[in-house]
Amino acid sequence: MRSISAIPVQSGLVPVSGRGRSLPDRWFLLVLVLVSTALRFPGLLIPPTSDEAGFLLVARRWAPSADNMYGTYWVDRPPLLIAAYRWSDAFLGYYGPRVLAAILAAVLVVAIHQLARRLTGAGPARVAALIAAALLANPDLSAWTAKGEVLGTPFVVLSCLAAVSALQDESVRRRGLLAAAAGLTAVLAAGFKQNLLGGLVFGAVLMAGAFLTGRLTRREAAHLAGRAVLGASVPVLVIALWIVVTPAQFDSAWYQIFGFRADASRVLAVSDSNAPGERAAGLWLQFARSGMAVLAGVALVTCRSWLRGRGLVGLALIAMTAFDVIGIVVGANYWHAYLIPLIPDLALVGALVCAGRRWQGNLVRVTAAAVALSSAFALVGLTRDQLDEPGVPSAWDTGLAIAAVARPGDTIVSLYGSPGVIDASTLDSPYRHLWSLPMRTLDPELAELRDLLAGPDAPTWVVVVLPLDSWHLDQDQRVSSVLSRRYELVNQPCGPAIWLLRPSGDRALPRLDCGSG
Q1: N or C: which end of the chain has fewer CB within 10 A?
Q2: Mapped to the 3 state alphabet, what secondary structure does 313-382 carry?
Q3: How many helices (H) and strands (E) does the chain have?
Q4: Which of 423, 438, 442 is closest to 50 using CA atoms?
């Protein structure tokens, strides 16, 4: 195999000595990472989100069975995500997942800087890193949480960096190793959230383009593609081996990771709830308010210029961005965290624009400053909200109130969803569904729930966070009937309804602080 550089390395990119621009870049990255990490700490004031609380519950009770690869609770997420929660919780305590998210966010900033530096040079790379750090500090994007998008997106960029490096390196052996690393990290990203396959898209377009333009021979392309496939197969083989040696089964695992999404999409499609539409409008508003829309607009206006200068990489970035946008649309729930995979896309395109004409670079730099300002305002708002007097108690507050009066052996169920209630209560739930969508998809008639409430393993506490007739569930009021017959309503001046299993006996009741709201 001949040694070529399919994507030219920027001149001055790798200094020949320890002096020059490399040292300032290190200091720049160090300061940026420290600042961006410090800006995540206001998020520690906020209790775990619904997803974080649910993932923690699944991870702590992980015991594979034939029909559920996680055992106690059911969730449609890959094992790598739940393993990350289990290990970080075990080693670092309750906030372990968010500490892990902070570490990976720092990795993301550094990876974006290094990739942009390879493609455009030092100046534009700093702008790209600043954009990424500012967006990751924006609490309105939920980037300070440990959601799957936050944990997985750094591996997407690492995959892109490895793919570009594989085409730039002159050593045949290193190029093969880098291609394998590109495949490995691309699939690892999908291990945190199934739609995080942007790294595979980027690498495939990049290598196919290099071959079609004659920058790679057929033999070279086959060599790199083979190594990439080999690297990508490693996580898949590890999960397959895990399934073989545990009670989990391939068919149920496949359904949890992939098949369920099709059934859930059909449930969402026939739902007449306005919530997805309202969240979609809110997602678009956040896209604009965070400055991401301005970055996208600048990229579109100047695309002819930066595509002409770096067409192959530009096409790969466009393909990856298009794939990420499709993932947002197909996701159908439109949570703010859906925007996180777009952070590296926009930051890297910003670097490409910066490397063009001076007016274009200045426009991106002004936009980057606006993005940082938007994140600063969002952080101030978050801190202010946390310091204000409390209003209506949250699901987490309700769980804490129940924990204060619970007795050994008590159990709890939250209707519908809100795993934070269960997590805060420290009680076990005998109902396998922690979220509303899996419940609506797998227990649509609530037969499983009714049998539980009417049976010998009925939970001690039932917290009704949403009305029982939400999504037209319990239209026949059979769940309501069971609650009225077997449970006592614990009256509260605010917050969700709390039901206590009869006979309640002489026991303390939970008290919620309604504040001034």
Answers
A1: C
A2: HHHHHHHHHHHHHHHHHHHCCCCHHHHCCHHHHHHHHHHHHHCCCHHHHHHHHHHHHHHHHHHHHHHHHH
A3: 22, 4
A4: 423
- As beta bridge partners, residue 68 has 65
Q: Which residues contact 426 (CB under 8 A, 6 or more apart)?
A: 403, 406
Residue numbers of the domain that contains 454: 395-501
Q: Is residue 279 in a domain?
A: yes
The torsion of the CA quartet 97, 101, 107, 109, rounded to 10 degrees, works out to -170
C-alpha to C-alpha distances, 154 to 34, 344, 468, nearest whole angstrom: 17, 9, 40
β strands within 65-187, DSSP E: none
Same domain, 283 and 375: yes
**What pLDDT was estimated at residue 517?**
43
Do residues 115 and 165 make contact, with C-beta atoms less than 8 angstroms apart? Answer: no
- What digits encode the pLDDT tens for the residues 223-259? 999 999 999 999 999 999 999 999 999 999 999 999 9
Structure tokens given for 325: 């946008």
End-to-end CA distance of the chain: 71
Same domain, 377 and 405: no
Question: 417 — alpha (psi -120 to 50), left (phi > 0) or beta?
Answer: left
The answer to whether the bond into 503 is cis (omega within 30° of 0) is yes
Which 3 state secondary structure label does DSSP give 70? coil
Q: Is the Cβ–Cβ distance between 252 and 69 less than 8 Å?
A: yes
- pTM above the 0.85 mark? yes
CA distance readout (Å), 395 to 69, 326, 424, 466, 473: 27, 32, 9, 11, 21
Q: Is 514 domain-assigned?
A: no
Helix, strand, or coil (residue 269): helix
Region label for 479, one of left (φ > 0), alpha (ψ between -120 and 50) or beta (otherwise): alpha
Classify 88 as helix, strand or coil.
helix
Report yes or no: 85 and 56 within 8 Å, Cβ to Cβ. yes
Q: Which tens digits make up the pLDDT trace of 114-173?
A: 999 999 888 899 999 999 999 998 888 888 899 999 999 999 999 999 999 999 888 888
The answer to the question of residue 509 being in a domain is no
**Residues 401, 380 within the same domain:** no
